[in-house]
Amino acid sequence: MIKPVLFVTNHAPPFRVGAFKALHERENVHFALIGGGVRHGGGGTTDEALPFPVLRPPQRTVARLAASGRYRAVIAGISGRVALPAAYAGARAGRIPFVLWATLWRHPRTPAHALSYAPLRHIYRNADAIATYGPHVSAYVRTKHPKGRVFEAPQAVDAAFWSAPATPDRRGEFQILFAGRRTHEKGIDVLQAAHDTGTLVFAEHETPEQLRNLYAGSDVVVVPSLPTRDFLEPWGLVINEAFHQGVPVIATDAVGAAAAGLVHHERTGLIVGAGDAGALRAAIHRLQDDEPLRRRLGENARHDVAAYTHTAWAQGMSAALAAAEGC
Fold first, then answer.
1. Type and span of the H or E element at 175
2. This prediction's pTM
3. 55, 65, 299, 304: most buried by Cβ count inside 10 Å?
4. Hey, do 5-156+309-325 and 159-305 end up sharing a CATH topology, with the first three levels equal?
5. What's residue 37's pLDDT?
6. Domain boundaries, given as residue ranges, for the chain
7. Helix (H/G/I), strand (E/B), else coil: 193
8. pLDDT, tens digit, for every residue of 179-211?
C-alpha cells in the first residue's frame, strides 16, 4: 500500500476543508495541524468531523514525525515558529521529497522576521518543489532562485455554496460592503475617509449564509488592505466569495488576489493604490454612477472565478508533489 503524505500546517479552517479533502482524495494525506495564532480565521470544525486524517503534534516533534519512515513525502506551509524548518529537516533526514507551500509575496519587515529570513531563503532554494498561492507569490519565490519547480495552487472557496441563490440583504440604494476585520492593515481607516456616498455596510461576525445574502444585496465589495511591516494581504478570499455572487470588487494593489490577476482592473473590478483615499473615493463614485459598468464587471467576475476551485487547488498541489517525487 502506498504511504501517505504528511502535510504540516497550522489549522484546517472551514474555508480550507474542501481543498484539503480534495487533496487527500488524490494523494492520501495526513494533516499535521500545529495550531497557533491566525489572522484569517481558524477552527470551527472538530477533528472528528474533518474528512481527512488529522494529527496534532507539538512543533518540536515535527522533525521526528517527518523522518519516521511512515510518509512518502512532506508538504509544509509557512506557519509556526519551528514547524517549517523542522518539517524540512525531517524530510531531509528521512530522505523523502519536500514541497514548500509558499504564501508570502514579500517577507515581513520586523526584527523577529528578519531572523527567519535566512533559514526560509534556504528552504526556498532547496525545496524539491514549491506550490504557491498564485503568480504574485511565484514571482517572489523565483527571486530566491529555487532549484525545484514552482507550481500554482489557486486560492478557492466553496464554489457551490457561494454561488448558490441568495436572499439579498439590501440596506441602501447603493450598497458598499466591507467584509473582514476592522483593523488598520485591512485599510478600514482609508475606507472611512473615502466614504462619502452610498450605504457602507460592515460584515465581520456574520454566518456564511448571512454574508452570502449581504454579497447578493451589495453593488460593490471594497478590499482596501494596506501593506504594513508584518502584513501584506496574501490573497483575500472575500473576493472569491463576492465574485461567485457576481459582485464587482474595488481592491488595492496590496491585495494578493489583485496582484495575481483575479481582480483584473476594468474587467472584474477596479484596482487603486493602497492608502489612497481619493482614488478609492473616485472608484466608488464611478461604480455608483455607471450601472452598466457594474453589471459588466460582475458578469466577468462570476465567469473568471469559476476556475478557482478546491479541485484546481488540489491539482496544483499534486503537480508540485509529483515533481518533487520525480527528483
1. strand 175-179
2. 0.95
3. 65
4. yes
5. 61
6. 5-156+309-325, 159-305
7. helix
8. 999 999 999 999 999 999 999 999 999 999 999
pLDDT of residue 115: 85
| Integer Cα distance of 116 and 111 in angstroms | 9
Distance of alpha carbon 319 from the chain centroid: 19
Q: Please check the confidence at residue 43 and state whether its pLDDT lies above 60.
A: no
Q: Which residue from 271, 290, 167 is spatially nearest to 222, judged by alpha carbons?
A: 271
Fold of 159-305: Rossmann fold (3.40.50)
**Beta strand pairing call for 249-252 and 199-203:** unpaired
Measured CA distances, 32 to 57, 130, 136, 189 (Å): 6, 19, 27, 38
Q: Provide the 3-class DSSP secondary structure of residue 199.
A: strand
Q: Residue 177 carries which side chain, given as an amino acid letter? A: L
- pLDDT confidence of residue 83: 96
Q: Say what the pLDDT of residue 112 is.
A: 81
Strand order in the sheet with 269-272: 199-203, 175-179, 220-223, 249-252, 269-272
Question: Which residue shows C-alpha cell 489612497?
Answer: 276
CATH architecture of the domain with range 5-156+309-325: 3-Layer(aba) Sandwich (3.40)
